[in-house]
Design goal:
- With 452 residues, the chain is of the alpha/beta class.
- The chain has helices at 21-37, 55-68, 82-94, 105-117, 133-141, 189-198, 211-223, 254-259, 264-273, 286-290, 308-319, 323-333, 344-350, 360-368, 380-388, 399-411, 416-427, 435-451, and strands spanning 8-11, 40-45, 74-77, 98-101, 147-150, 156-161, 165-170, 178-180, 203-207, 230-234, 237-239, 303-305.
- Helix 1 (21-37) links the parallel strand 1 (8-11) and strand 2 (40-45).
- Helix 1 packs across helix 9, helix 9 crosses helix 11 (308-319) and helix 17 (416-427) packs across helix 18.
- Bound molecules: glutamic acid.
- Glutamic acid binds at residues 12-14, 46, 188, 192, 206, 210.
Length: 452
């Protein structure tokens, strides 16, 4: 067991695309775990695949995490640690755990097919281990370069998973994994272990698609002299509309949500809470969210979310948001933001009617812009009468009832027949915030003009 305080987790994305909601789940489960334990977070950029890694994706990962409120305590780029990975390779070679193999993908494929035809599991047969020095020299002379495989112990590797409880992987049922390609570049498996050891990672929290890797990686941790971290494999996310959570799924990228005007805490809360027994709601801060997350309670079945939940949660977050928090966001929405109107009273009047911050623009228009009143011909005389009994300014939140009492007395109308034509004339719409709150914001001059 690690002592609290020395806990260190890492989130290790590959910079081959934009982060999506599924990546956010991994990043946040790490971040919140560290928050609960007083630990540190390393952001490790897994860029050993030079072909597919892009600098702009690296920048975007940092930016998108920051938007979520996840700012790492430390950063590491795997591509800058190649000498450390090379040194580990030499140690594994010296220990007889890494061996050269020369099969081409075609040869391996043919062998697999033969095994399957015979009803055997398609596991690498370790033919390369039986080669003599002369065999190897001949291949090298013919220009063949080896890839390097890790010789598994072929045993039951066990660990106590933070999410899934006791786990075992039988490495006898796996092929010896290739750790280094023909061209000398690394696959993900080894650099990850080397970095976890050397950068002091105590807890590896990642998706359950890595469970089998963990069996292999624990053998590598031990071959390199450990220490073996504690593992936790969380379930993956899937939308009820069926899209898989792949890195290429742009529509549910964090950028996409940000661009569409969602609150980061809506996305963070949903990414973490979906599929748990916790009430699905957007918490105002990561610290508040952390109080509702426990890895031991994360389910082992796929966490399904309904894409509509994003909107529902976002709306609920805005409905409770205090003015102080809303103000900078309202300014960011821009479009003629006017201090004289868009103050606390405006916010309290409209927040119940917003799904996204950008919806505030509509109500800002209603309050201070030039909307087109919706007026039915049959209401013309009624609206004229209503205008004639408008109270004098200053207006406050009692003005609406004072006015409508007068209108009722003057016209005999009541209920919907009274309120709806007024709402449609004043806002151009037949739904929206309480008129009692909107009326003083619209003011006498505009109200009178809209009734005419
Ligand atoms: N780069 C790996 C991935 O994105 C990291 C896996 C891990 O957390 O070890 O799947």
């Amino acid at each position: 067991m690690t002592l609290a305080g020395s806990i260190k987790v890492r989130f290790a994305p590959s910079p081959t695309g934009y982060l999506h909601i599924g990546n956010a789940r991994s990043a946040l489960l790490n971040h919140l775990f560290a928050l609960q334990a007083g630990g540190r977070v390393l952001l490790r950029i897994d860029d050993t695949d030079r072909e597919r890694s892009r600098e702009h994706f690296r920048d975007a990962i940092i930016e998108d995490l920051a938007w979520l409120g996840v700012v790492p305590d430390e950063m590491a780029d795997q591509s800058k640690r190649k000498d450390r990975h090379d040194a580990a390779v030499e140690r594994l070679k010296a220990a007889g755990r890494l061996y050269p193999a020369y099969e081409t993908p075609d040869e391996l494929d043919r062998r697999r097919k033969r095994q399957l035809a015979r009803g055997q599991p398609p596991i690498y047969d370790r033919a390369a281990l039986g080669m003599s020095d002369a065999d190897r020299a001949a291949l090298e002379a013919a220009g063949r370069r080896p890839h390097w495989r890790f010789r598994l112990d072929g045993r039951s590797v066990g660990w106590n998973d933070l999410v899934r409880g006791p786990q075992t992987v039988d490495t006898a049922s796996l092929s010896d994994p290739v750790l280094v390609r023909e061209d000398g570049t690394f696959l993900y498996t080894l650099p990850s272990v080397v970095d976890d050891i050397e950068l002091g990672i105590t807890h590896v929290i990642r998706g359950e698609d890595h469970v089998t890797n963990t069996g292999v990686q624990i053998e590598i941790f031990e071959a390199l002299g450990g220490p073996v971290p504690t593992f936790g494999h969380h379930n993956l996310l899937a939308s009820t509309s069926g899209e898989a959570m792949s890195k290429r799924l742009g529509s549910l990228s964090l950028r996409g949500f940000r661009h569409d005007g969602y609150e980061p805490m809506t996305i963070a809360s949903l990414a973490v809470l979906v599929g748990s027994s916790e009430d699905l709601r957007a918490y105002p801060t990561l610290a508040a969210l952390a109080e509702h997350v426990d890895l031991a309670h994360v389910s082992t079945s796929t966490a399904m979310f309904d894409p509509h939940d994003f909107e529902t949660l976002n709306a609920r977050l805005l409905h409770d948001m205090p003015w102080a928090e809303a103000e900078p966001r309202l300014r960011a929405v821009g479009a003629g933001f006017d201090d004289a109107v868009a103050g606390p009273a405006f916010w309290l009047a409209v927040r119940q009617n917003l799904r996204l911050f950008s919806d505030a623009k509509l109500w800002f228009e209603v309050v201070s812009g030039d909307i087109i009143p919706a007026v039915e011909a049959e209401d013309r005389a009624f609206l004229d009468a209503a205008r004639d009994v408008l109270p004098a300014e200053p207006w406050d939140d009692t003005t609406w009832s004072t006015w409508t009492e007068r209108v009722k007395a003057a016209t005999g109308r009541k209920g919907k027949a009274l309120f709806m034509p007024l709402r449609r004339a004043l806002t151009g719409l037949d739904h929206g915030p309480e008129l009692k709150a909107l009326l003083p914001l619209i003011g006498l001059r505009k109200t009178s003009a809209r009734l005419s």
